[in-house]
Design goal:
By secondary structure, the chain is mainly α. The chain has 6 helices and no strands. The radius of gyration is 16 Å and the shape is globular.
Length: 170
């Protein structure tokens, strides 16, 4: 039992580290789009993986730590606000849709990508009092769909290839 607990803690630590590294690498990538805020969302890969491997509590823990640490290390207070608003909404939707029988990592990640963009857009509209920002919604929905699908496919591959827990031979 103790070895399995240690394995789980190590896995969560690795997932957090991977999410931070992927988030940093993603910040260095400049996408050829004219709309600000469109990102691939690579760090969400770790969240979807943990959601399916361990459950919502572990995924929430790593997601929260990732948001706080990445904002402290690489971002700003404004970045924290947008990241947290998108992440909170997307996480709530992802844990909800994961409960459906037809759900898959791909579907869950698509829902997460789309709702993350919606959460950030709503935060921007409220913060800047600019309803006109709503015109970005169609493009952000398509971007969330595409990036969510790609991340979900990667999460599905990882779930199939990374062993589920530590095998203990007595």
């Amino acid at each position: 039992m103790r070895q399995k607990s240690s394995y789980k803690i190590a896995t969560l630590g690795l997932a957090l580290t991977l999410a931070l590294i992927l988030g940093y690498v993603e910040s260095l990538i400049i996408l050829p789009v004219a709309i600000p805020g469109i990102k691939v969302g690579l760090s969400n890969l770790a969240v979807v993986f943990l959601l399916y491997r361990y459950g919502w509590k572990e995924a929430l823990l790593v997601n929260t730590a990732r948001i706080l640490l990445s904002s402290l290390l690489f971002g700003s207070l404004m970045g924290l606000l947008f990241s947290a608003s998108g992440a909170l909404l997307s996480f709530l939707f992802m844990i909800t849709v994961k409960r459906f029988d037809f759900s898959s990592p791909q579907f869950t990640s698509v829902v997460g990508g789309v709702t993350h963009n919606v959460g950030q857009l709503v935060a921007a509209m409220l913060l800047f009092s600019q309803v006109m920002l709503g015109y970005y919604l169609p493009v952000l929905l398509v971007a969330g769909l595409i990036t969510g699908l790609l991340n979900g496919m990667l999460a599905d591959i990882l779930l199939k290839r990374i062993p589920d827990g530590l095998q203990i031979n007595n």
